[in-house]
Amino acid sequence: MLIYQKRNNLKVTFNGYFYKEEKKGIKKAIEVFNSYFNISDEFYFNLNSISKHEISNLNSEYFNKKGPTDVLSFPLFSGIVEINQLNIENEETLGDMFFCRSILKMNAAKYHKSLIEELQLVLVHGLLHLVGYTHADESELRKRENAILDKVWNGLIKN
Q1: What is the pLDDT of residues 25-81, one digit of tens each?
Q2: Angle at CA of residue 94, ends 100 and 135, nearest 5°
Q3: What is d(CA 128, CA 64) in angstroms, rounded to the nearest whole number?
Q4: Rounded to whole angstroms, how far apart are CA atoms 102 and 33?
Q5: What kind and span of H or E run contains 76?
Q6: How far is the C-alpha of 50 from the C-alpha of 130, rounded, in Å?
Q7: SS3 of 8, please?
Q8: What are the start-end ranges of the H helices in 38-137?
Q9: Which helix (H) or strand (E) holds 95?
Q10: For labelling, which of 62, 83, 94, 149 has a CA lying 20 to 30 Å from the CA of 76?
Q11: Is the dihedral of CA 135, 103, 67, 18 positive or negative?
Q12: Domains in the chain, ordered, with CATH?
């Protein structure tokens, strides 16, 4: 288990194997994400790299969906308002995120992205779920996701 932390930045606990370049891409996406949400550096989430079989089981058990998916998030709080009411001096976990590298590789090829870009996309998507964005308001979720990813990939600031 490795924990990444930058001052005034959300922490991540890595579970499973992560390549050096993947960690670098993850760190960049977290920094940009946190520029939008300013989450305490005492807060963290667990990022788990799992197999296609494992993510299929989670998808079935918790979402009643058959087959594998790229990313699943399990938030512990209802949203950013509740998160912002927590004591910033206490260490808090925002939840768990699981991704499947083999699905990311397939999606990267399908959508003409690098594996790192696809990883950053699912990471930002998953983080948005951890702070309360849902598919019930798909347009707001995608709007925020696109703004963050634009800044991650192009360095543009669009708050």
Answers
A1: 999 999 999 999 888 888 999 999 999 999 999 999 999 999 999 999 999 999 998
A2: 65
A3: 21
A4: 24
A5: none
A6: 18
A7: coil
A8: 52-63, 80-84, 101-110, 115-130
A9: strand 92-99
A10: 149
A11: negative
A12: 2-154 (3.40.390.30)
Distance CA 4, CA 36 (A): 19
pTM of this structure = 0.90
Q: Output the six-digit token pair for 26.
A: 């993850």
Alpha carbon 73 to chain centroid, angstroms = 8
In sequence order, the 6+-apart residues with CB closer than 8 A to the CB of 109 are none
Q: Could you tell me the two tokens for 139?
A: 């347009």
What b/e string do you get for 47-77 counting C-beta neighbours within 10 Å, with b at 16 or more?
bbbbeeeebbebbeeeeeeeebbbbbbbbeb
Q: How many helices (H) and strands (E) does the chain have?
A: 6, 5
Helix (H) or strand (E) holding 50: none
Residue 142 to residue 119: CA distance in whole angstroms: 16
